[in-house]
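Here is a typical sample entry:
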Amino acid sequence: MKPASVFLIVPLAFVSLGFSAVTAQQPASAEGWRQTERTDPVRGDYARYTLVGKFLKAPAGDSSARPSLTVDCSTHNRSHKSKFVRGTLVVGDPLKIDWVEPEEIHGISYFPKVDVLYRLNDAKEDKEQWTPSTDKTSASFSKNSFEKMLRAHTVEITAQDQGGAAVVMQFDIPESNAIEQACEVDRHKK
């Protein structure tokens, strides 16, 4: 082998080793629930649990962000028990808002909602309407929806971005005993 070709092969070998090291260090989707302690002047102390997912079909905006599920559980309240306060799907890009007529009308009022389809494992899709945040980049879900999600291994959530295009996210649900106890939710309840 010529000395010049050795000088070309050695740098290429180092570059290929560098790429394999980078791909091995990418975060796994099953990182688990990450807990942080928070304090709010109104609610007091509470725990926030965050589970990061992945986009199967990303929104048209910044694709470097990853979707997440966040769950807030109060740690101090009058009953001295922890409880589920709020669950939120964080997308990061504005979602399509539908204005829904309430069951009982007192004047002219409609409620903003985000239409969401979610599939647990490979089961049939459930359709719900979740309440959007003020900046419309996230939507809140109920305790009942959260309990259903905890029963699954995989949750696939579909919503629409503000242009009407489908945004599809997937979350791998890890062992959730700690969050069940902390938020007083029951994944076994049907």
Summary: The longest strand covers residues 111-120. The chain has one domain: 31-183. Residues 2 and 8 are 10 Å apart (CA to CA). The radius of gyration is 22 Å.
